[in-house]
Every structure is written in structure tokens, then in C-alpha cells.
């Protein structure tokens, strides 16, 4: 996550935002193996983390989308949440993007989702290859749509309270330390 946070830092600097918040969510096994990202100014270490689902749940609720959605596991986790009937009409932008070299990877992911979860799951994401301008336009439009939805529902902009999580998706999180 160093790349996205560095990009956010540069973006904030260009906008003259001096008090950006960079939230890191991790677990003891990860923090023992590598030092925290130096850009992070709020670090939450989850004390009880039996599996990656709890970490993904925290990222999804706090960040809107899981910031590491480049892995099949995280993509399937997000789709598991979005396919819940209570989340059917909730705007939740999910765009898979990358350079030309990532096209085959996303085609395989798309085919796997079609074959296992069906067309309903495919309606929850877009794949945009090698077109950063289109990605930026889509992100802007979806951000406005999400903002309008949350305003209409009286939901917070910083945490998705309307998102319905069940089972492993909603296991409680126990923050151990915040720096």
C-alpha cells in the first residue's frame, strides 16, 4: 500500500492539504514481518484476526473499497458483500484497471466470476484497461453518485454504515493500538 498512499500524499500536497489522514489497518503477524508504512499517521492493529476476512472487512468499511483489490481473494470478498440482497441498490464503485499487460489477468478473473457467481456478480464491477482518463471520469461520476446516495440516506461520508455484512464479513474488530 505504499504506492497508493504516496500518490494520495502527492495529491494532497498539490491541493495544499496539510493534514491528510492515512489510515493503516493490519494484524500482528504482518506488523511483525515488516515495518509500518511511514506515511501512515493512524495505525490500527487488529488483536483478534483469525483470517484475512476481518482485515478485508475493516478496509472495506473504512476505505469504501479494499485498497488491495488486485487479488482474486479481495475481489471475491467484495463481490460476496455486494451480492447480499440488502446491498443490491447501494452504489459501490468497483473498477479493475491497469496497463495493457493486466488485460489477460482481468479477463481470467471476469471469466471465473461469470462461471462461478454468474452475471449478477459481473454487474457490480467495470474493467477498464489502459485508459486512465476514462477511469478518472468513472471515479468522479461514481463518487458523486455515492455522495448523493449517502446524503439521501443520512449516512456518513467516511464510513459506510448502510453496507450489510454477514457471517465472516461482519466479525467484530478489536483495535489494539492506535498511533
Could you describe the 3D structure shown?
- About 4% of the residues have low confidence.
- Helix 2 links the parallel strand 1 and strand 2.
- The protein has one domain: Rossmann fold.
- With 179 residues, it is of the alpha/beta class.
- It contains seven helices and five strands; from the N terminus they run H-E-H-E-H-H-E-H-H-E-H-E.
Question: How is this fold's topology laid out?
Answer:
Blueprint: H1 2-14, E1 23-26, H2 28-33, E2 42-46, H3 52-63, H4 72-82, E3 95-98, H5 103-116, H6 119-122, E4 126-129, H7 132-153, E5 175-178
Parallel strand pairs: 1-2, 3-4
Antiparallel strand pairs: 2-5
Q: Name the assembly state.
A: single chain
Question: What percent strand?
Answer: 5-15%
Helix content class: 40-55%
Radius of gyration: 17 Å
Summarize model confidence as the mean pLDDT. Answer: 79
- Quick one: how many beta strands? 5
Highest CATH level, the class: Alpha Beta
Sheet/helix structural class: alpha/beta
Order of helices and strands: HEHEHHEHHEHE
Distance between the termini: 18 Å
| Number of domain units | 1
What spatial order of strands do you see in the largest sheet?
1-2-5
Annotation field: number of helices: 7
Shape: globular
What composes the largest sheet?
3 strands, mixed
